[in-house]
Design goal:
The structure is a single chain. The protein is an all-beta fold. It is about 0% helix and about 60% strand. The strands form seven sheets. Strands 1, 2, 3, 4 and 30 form a five-stranded antiparallel β-sheet that branches. Strands 5, 6, 7, 8 and 9 form a five-stranded antiparallel β-sheet that branches. A four-stranded antiparallel β-sheet has the order 10-11-12-13, with no helix packed on it.
Length: about 350
């Protein structure tokens, strides 16, 4: 069954939650028809605290429970019985740290890489045994950046795995750390220095003409930095003037030919073509007035782009046209305080 997974904030003290906003209840699993781009059944709600990032490994669902008191992930076994979604809670894992916010999985489904925003940690979790996640390695970072409020310390925001190398974005220190892997553990290789005050948040990677291109969305200065084999080769500003309260949020790459990036606070989604040299060229800007698109993703078919508006609770869907433009915008479903939307498939 094709599904959409939506992680939500369940507490009013979570980031950017409005005072009188209806709160989420946990993880929403929504049956989805990717051919029609439509909801295809009754959602299942898994109740848990602040599951701000979820990750699907076959029929195993992992979620962080974002908290200032601990670093925690929870595992569920999900499935389909008589065309209805099911979920069974397995063992969770509480660890030292604060505000876990992102999960990356390895190619074999044996390891998770968890980013702790609050404490500036990167964790490796062994998930080789179902229902028994184990902390394998923890790497802590120190330092600070230019912004005294957002960059007073290390803040690991996300990581991305590519051909055995892991890249971790430190929003607090304006750095990208790269690691090799050996027997499931990480060995630090290089550090990429990002422009001071940029605040790297999320990343994507492509291989073109034998070169590795790393695309970094910078939250604080609303830019995209492109690195070719570790060297900066392009910087694009999403806004000529930084709108008050606007923050770059998420990016995704389609078919190796288009990159989309969202901005919270302006309701904008930018579409860039990716040329043969890995460079970005602006093709389209879509605006939903007063939108707050914290999360965007492509569905499994890459025929549609989904965008979660944290403040209105609306999950928008856009049809992707033949040249990559977004069209036929509509509200797919409403979920209170959606902070991540993800497309997946379960058996």
């Amino acid at each position: 069954m094709d599904i959409l997974l939506v992680g939500t904030y369940t507490q009013h003290d979570a980031p950017a939650v409005l005072e009188k906003q209806e709160l989420g209840k946990g993880i929403y699993l929504i049956p989805y028809n990717e051919i029609l781009g439509d909801v295809a059944g009754t959602p299942l709600i898994i109740q848990m605290q602040n599951p701000s990032w979820v990750c699907l490994v076959k029929n195993r669902l992992f979620a962080v429970s974002e908290s200032e008191d601990a670093a925690e992930i929870v595992e569920y076994e999900v499935g389909v019985q008589e065309e209805r979604l099911t979920a069974e809670k397995k063992e969770g894992l509480q660890m030292p740290g604060k505000a876990s916010c992102h999960i990356e999985k390895d190619e074999k489904g044996q390891r998770l890489f968890v980013s702790d925003y609050g404490s500036g940690d990167l964790k490796v979790i062994d998930i080789s045994e179902a229902g028994s996640p184990k902390l394998l390695q923890e790497i802590s970072f120190t330092g600070k950046g230019l912004d005294p409020e957002r960059q007073e310390a290390s803040h690991i925001h996300s990581c991305v795995l590519h051909r055995g190398d892991l890249y971790a974005a430190d929003l607090g220190c304006d750095k990208i750390y790269s690691f090799g892997t050996d027997k499931g553990k990480l060995l630090q290789k290089e550090t990429i220095e990002v422009r001071p005050g940029a605040g790297p948040r999320h990343m994507g990677i492509l291989e073109k003409n034998g070169k590795t291109y790393l695309y970094v969305l910078n939250e604080l200065d609303l830019t995209i930095s492109v690195y070719c084999n570790g060297e900066l080769c392009q910087t694009i500003s999403l806004e000529e003037k930084l709108p008050e309260g606007a923050l770059a949020a998420e990016l995704c790459i389609a078919e190796g030919k288009m990159l989309y990036a969202s901005v919270r606070g302006t309701g904008e989604i930018f579409g860039f073509t990716i040329d043969e040299n890995g460079m970005l060229n602006l093709k389209q800007k879509v605006v939903v007035p007063k939108g707050w698109f914290r999360s965007i993703c492509l569905d499994s078919s890459e025929e549609h782009l989904l965008a979660a508006d944290q403040k209105t609770g609306k999950i928008y869907i856009f049809d992707r046209q033949s040249e990559g433009e977004l069209g036929n915008q509509r509200v797919l479903v409403e979920v209170p305080v959606p902070v991540q939307v993800l497309s997946g498939k379960i058996e």
